[in-house]
Design brief:
Distance between the termini: 44 Å
Radius of gyration: 19 Å
Number of helices: 4
Shape: extended
Strand order of the largest sheet: 1-2
Structural class: mainly alpha
Low-confidence stretches: 1-6
Mean pLDDT: 85
Helix content: 55-70%
Number of strands: 2
Largest sheet: 2 strands, antiparallel
Strand content: 5-15%
Order of helices and strands: EEHHHH
Length: 89
């Protein structure tokens, strides 16, 4: 039996595969939210004040959007820009 470390215990390959299938059936936004939560769970403890700093940054960005000063790009353009930066840092 193949065992995988899950939640401090072990899960056999079949239940893990079933869980994986269920998770992959989620919508893209649900999978993104789950991925974010899982990655955060692996990160080191948050720095003191990080949450407040993010709250300020989010508020700043919202004000920028409301003032019409934000540049919006669609997903395809975003991926193109990120790909270009990764290829030519």
């Amino acid at each position: 039996m193949i065992e995988n470390h899950v939640f401090g215990g072990f899960m056999s390959a079949e239940p893990l595969q079933q869980l994986r299938s269920q998770l992959l059936a989620l919508s893209e936004s649900e999978r993104a939210e789950l991925a974010h939560d899982l990655i955060q769970s692996l990160d080191a403890p948050r720095e003191s004040g990080a949450g407040e700093a993010w709250d300020r940054e989010i508020a700043r960005r919202i004000l920028e959007i409301d003032a019409g000063q934000a540049e919006f790009v669609d997903r395809a353009e975003f991926r193109k820009r990120v790909s270009a930066k990764l290829q030519h840092p």
